[in-house]
Design brief:
The chain is mainly alpha-helical and 187 residues long. The chain has 2 domains: 94 residues, no CATH class; 84 residues, no CATH class. It contains 9 helices and 3 strands; from the N terminus they run ααααααβααββα. Strands 1-3-2 form a 3-stranded antiparallel beta sheet, sandwiched between helices. Helix 3 runs antiparallel to helix 6. The longest helix is centred in the middle third of the chain and has 15 residues.
Length: 187
């Protein structure tokens, strides 16, 4: 759904305020994390580079994505509720999802949906060998399935989810190196 001219004007005004003191170096870790998760996927990196180089353009063009996440930077009264850190972080999440390195599942999804979601990830082969030998309980939840699979992987790979302050689980599969990097950037 295209953004109307009126909505673009509102977006531009709020983005102007948010970006007034923007310093690219404050968000370089987004590139580092995305590079690790996506194995430096050209399209992911190009989109995030665009976001960091031309943030106003990027956020205006992708306003619908943020609106779907109930971030309405088109609403002038929402100015105090919007955080530039969150916008860049969600840009990374969306680009990883767009190119198959992240898949969001609902917190109450079925085991079948959870396993299917993992299969959608481009780096699924990092964990596919261990899944047939596991007896995952249908009555468990996403956290419990992740824990059981990660225990079986014994540090060779990890299923993680990205905390976006939502009731969904944006799943990724991480190498041990990526897992450590994410942990370092999380603190």
């Amino acid at each position: 759904m295209p953004v109307s001219k009126r909505e673009k004007l509102k977006t531009m005004n709020i983005l102007d305020i948010l970006l007034k003191e923007y310093e690219r170096r404050d968000y370089e870790d987004i590139l580092e994390i995305a590079e690790a998760i996506s194995a430096n996927h050209e399209d992911v990196m190009r989109q995030l580079e665009w976001a960091l180089t031309h943030p106003k353009e990027y956020f205006t063009k992708n306003a619908q994505r943020f609106h779907e996440r109930e971030i309405d930077y088109e609403n002038e009264e929402a100015e105090d509720e919007i955080d530039l850190d969150d916008l860049f972080f969600l840009a990374m999440v969306d680009e990883l999802q767009e190119y198959g390195y992240l898949y969001e599942v609902d917190w109450k999804c079925s085991l079948e949906d959870f396993l299917w979601s993992l299969e959608q990830l481009k780096n699924y082969t990092m964990i596919s060998h261990i899944l047939p030998s596991l007896n995952l309980d249908e009555n468990f939840n996403v956290d419990m399935w992740i824990e059981k699979i990660n225990d079986a992987l014994d540090g060779k790979a990890y299923i993680c989810y990205v905390d976006i302050d939502s009731d969904s689980f944006p799943l990724i599969i991480a190498s041990p190196e990526t897992y450590r990097l994410i942990g370092e950037n999380d603190s």
